[in-house]
Amino acid sequence: MVELTEIKDEINGNVETAQTVPSEPMNATETKETVEQEKNDEDDDEDEDDSDFDDDFDENETFVDRIVALKDIVSPKQRQCVSSFITNTTAFVKSAFAKGGSLTWALTTTALLLGVPLSLSILAEQQLIEMEKTFDLQKDANDLLGTEAAAAPAATA
């Protein structure tokens, strides 16, 4: 025998009463009748399945309503596990972004404070080297012209 117990529905406040249902028929004639009745019930159920779907479908039901309805399906322990997982994941992502932002700020300001003056001094030194090369070329050109000018009067004499 199967015994049904009372269950309180949280949403509607309905109460189902306890019932006792026999799990096996009493004799062979009941078995034949039960089998025939089950076959007829299956045929009726196939016809009713289509109408049940139409009855259960609500066009005004929102996605949030469906999520809330899952509360009845998912056990409280699993809901707690999912909730704690989402909370921990959210906290981890927030802290990762906060620390990543701080690290990016530190690297950027360090690069600006140290890198810009360093690059400016390297650029100034390169300009100084270029000026020295230019002066050396001018000096060599003047020396070359001066020796040619001194050599030219000697060659004519």
UniProtKB/TrEMBL annotation:
GO cellular component terms given for this protein? mitochondrial outer membrane
| Cross-referenced Pfam families | Tom22
- Bias (Acidic residues) ranges: 39-58
Q: What is an annotated GO biological process for this record, any one? A: intracellular protein transport
Please give the superkingdom of this protein's source. Eukaryota
Where does this protein have compositionally biased stretches of type Polar residues? 14-29
Which spans does this entry mark as compositional bias, Basic and acidic residues?
1-11
- According to the record, the residues making up region (Disordered) are 1-58
| Membrane-topology annotation of the record | Single-pass membrane protein
- UniProt family annotation: Belongs to the Tom22 family.
Q: Which UniProt keywords apply?
A: Membrane, Mitochondrion, Mitochondrion outer membrane, Protein transport, Receptor, Translocation, Transmembrane, Transmembrane helix, Transport
Q: What is this protein called?
A: Mitochondrial import receptor protein
Q: Cellular location of this protein?
A: Mitochondrion outer membrane
